[in-house]
Description:
Layout: H1 11-24, H2 37-44, H3 48-61, E1 64-67, E2 71-74, H4 78-102, H5 107-117
Antiparallel strand pairs: 1-2
Amino acid sequence: MEWKFIDSIPIYSQIVNELTVRIARHDYLPGQKLPSVRDIAAQACVNPNTVQRALTELERSGLVRTERTNGRFVTEDEKVLKEIYKSLSSAYINEMIEKLRNIGMNDTEIMEAISSCVGKEK
């Protein structure tokens, strides 16, 4: 998987976001071992300390847990996983709404546009 970084956002924060998205879309399943710090750093072409900082943030959020000598694993806590999924979907929806308002759409037009798109085949 390719890593692309935006200069204006701290890299560790972008790694947190990317790993969170990958967990939410089930690239990494509950209970699954994550790649090592060195492996992620090599894939993303970043310093291992940056990856370590990102993984520490994910641990604090409860999305990842560490097993001594075994590595890091995705949480199996359904409540945490549902909250992350809900948080991501809310952020994406709010971003979309903001963009639609910026082009002059009101709430009714936004809801109509969303309704017309939901359920359509890709």
